[in-house]
Specification:
This is RNA-binding protein. Keywords: RNA-binding. InterPro entries: RNA-binding_CRM, RNA-binding_domain, RNA-binding_YhbY, YhbY-like_sf. It comes from Streptococcus pantholopis. This protein has 103 residues and is an alpha+beta fold. It has a single domain, classed as Translation Initiation Factor IF3, CATH 3.30.110. Helix content is 42%, strand content 19%. The protein has 4 helices and 4 strands, in the order αβαβαββα. The protein has a 4-stranded mixed beta sheet, with helices on both faces.
Length: 103
Amino acid sequence: MMLTSKQRAFLKGQAQPMKAIIQIGKNGLNSHIKTSIRQALDARELIKVSLLQNTDEDLHEVAEILENEIGCETVLKIGRTLILYKESAKKENRKLSPKVKMI
């Protein structure tokens, strides 16, 4: 699902007060981090991921890998922070997706 600019703007506003819940450090983007991101997206639908100073990963490459492997959408790449969105597989966790679909 490709996000429209209005949906992206809505999600940016929702993510603005959030803190990054996942940090990618010197070990890079490994399978443990991908699993954590999958679980966080399933629970929250919208998360922030930050790349720490000591990582060799590139923000754009990380975003592309996550989009391909997890199937999430990159809402915003700013500085060393990614905002990711994916509709939850569990109906009880779908708080944002109905609002996003109505936009």
